[in-house]
Specification:
This is PTS system mannose-specific transporter subunit IIC. Helices cover about 75% and strands about 0% of the residues. With about 270 residues, it is an all-alpha fold. It folds into 2 domains: about 5-195, no CATH class; about 205-250. The longest helix has about 40 residues, at about 90-130.
């Protein structure tokens, strides 16, 4: 792996750590982090596949009350690095990296607790600076706290990058077949559950036609329509949906109190 690739991976990991708190640009999401790391390492396809699989798993992770969800940023970045260092970009290698992500995400909670414990002292320092009117000290406290969040992800990723590739390959190859097969089965189940969660959240009569069209198009062989063609069809469908939505809004006279939350249904019921 080149020096530029290592620097880019560390930068992506740092941004993922920051965005795990800021939640602005979604760098911590598996689909984004794994794709960017795969792109930096010259394996964008494998990064997308790993990120997509982890994204379905992360759909069920949420902070509820005092319970903190597993660290999705560390899971995404570390799993991508493990896959790259292992050198196996097949479905088996992606599945093994996915299986490694879960314990790494749980282990990341320990780092989160350490950083948040340190942040308590930083907050008290910022309060004292605010009382004395030292605004720059308050700003420095915020920046330092964010720096710790970035280092929380960068340091474990840097340790993984420092490991020789041969060591990582030997460790991954030592995994017994029954465990790797179990990871494959579990990964398939997670994807199915992820799809079910998405359908449960989005299943309305206004989007079901698009789901049906998408599944039909996906069944067409690659020799007849490429992924780029499917993407263009998706863009066209999105434009059609936006146009219909705008038409429904204008037909209601711009009154938000009229009609329903189903613009396509409103149009169909007018006929």
């Amino acid at each position: 792996m080149s020096v530029i690739s290592i620097i880019l991976i560390l930068l992506i990991s740092f941004l993922a750590g920051l965005d795990g708190i800021l939640d602005q640009f979604q760098f911590h999401q598996p689909l984004v982090a794994c794709t960017l790391i795969g792109l930096a390492a010259g394996q964008p396809a494998a990064g997308i596949m790993l990120g997509g699989t982890l994204q379905f798993l992360a759909l069920g992770w949420a902070n509820i009350g005092a319970a903190v969800a597993p660290d999705v940023a560390l899971a995404s970045t570390a799993a991508a690095v493990v896959m790259i260092k292992g050198g196996d970009f097949s479905q088996k290698g992606i599945t093994i990296a996915y299986g490694v992500a879960v314990p790494l995400a749980i282990a990341g909670l320990a780092l989160t607790m350490v950083v948040r414990a340190v942040s308590i002292g930083i907050v008290h320092g910022a309060d004292a600076a605010a009382k004395s009117g030292n605004i720059r000290a308050v700003e420095r406290s915020h920046y330092f706290a964010l720096l710790l969040q970035g280092l929380r992800i960068v340091l474990p990723v840097a340790l993984l990058l420092a490991l020789p590739a041969d060591h990582v390959k030997s460790i991954l190859e030592a995994i017994p077949s029954w465990l790797s097969d179990g990871m494959t089965i579990g990964g398939g189940m997670v994807v199915a559950v992820g799809y079910a969660m998405i359908l449960n959240m989005m299943a309305t009569r206004e989007v079901w036609p698009f789901f049906i069209i998408g599944f039909v198009l996906a069944a067409i062989p690659d020799t007849q329509i490429t992924l780029f063609g499917l993407g263009m069809v998706g863009v066209a469908l999105a434009m059609i949906y936006i146009a219909i939505t705008n038409q429904a809004g204008s037909s209601n006279g711009g009154d938000a109190n009229t009609g329903s939350d189903d613009p396509i249904g409103d149009i169909l019921e007018d006929y």
